[in-house]
């Protein structure tokens, strides 16, 4: 009988120890749960803007050799970066003899003159970005 009571006492001690341990986790969990709503986690991420450039023409149609101005805005392109005008010729973009630089306000302005009669497609490029094309109809 003595062994049986020893086993019962040890079993009771183990159960009591488990209960205390579980109770301790419960208290710690409750303390953590009550503290969680007051805590705020701020994650700061900086997403670098993708370099971009736009183009706008002041004329849709111009006489041969008349000045046509292009203006635009840039994003994430450094002040002083070179802006090169290109014209589509025989399916390839070719540098046109007109360049300018990006201003401190992230803009640019440049003009061209073309004697090539018909629809001329122009775009601007920098080392980091290329604009969409703009069409100018050159007439005689």
Automatic annotation (TrEMBL):
Lineage of origin: Bacteria, Bacillati, Actinomycetota, Actinomycetes, Propionibacteriales
Name the UniProt record assigns to this protein: Ig-like domain-containing protein
Keywords assigned by UniProt, alphabetized: Signal
Signal peptide annotation: 1-21
Highest taxon above the source species: Bacteria
């Amino acid at each position: 009988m003595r062994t049986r009571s020893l086993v019962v006492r040890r079993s009771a001690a183990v159960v009591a120890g488990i209960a205390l341990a579980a109770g301790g986790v419960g208290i710690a969990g409750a303390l953590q749960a009550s503290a969680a709503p007051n805590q705020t986690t701020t994650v700061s991420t900086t997403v670098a803007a993708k370099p971009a450039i736009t183009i706008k023409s002041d004329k849709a149609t111009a006489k041969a050799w008349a000045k046509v101005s292009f203006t635009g805005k840039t994003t994430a392109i450094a002040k002083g970066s070179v802006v090169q005008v290109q014209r589509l010729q025989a399916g390839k973009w070719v540098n046109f003899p007109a360049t300018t630089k990006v201003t401190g306000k992230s803009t640019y302005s440049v003009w061209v003159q073309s004697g090539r009669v018909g629809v001329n497609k122009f775009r601007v490029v920098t080392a980091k970005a290329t604009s969409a094309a703009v069409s100018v109809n050159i007439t005689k």
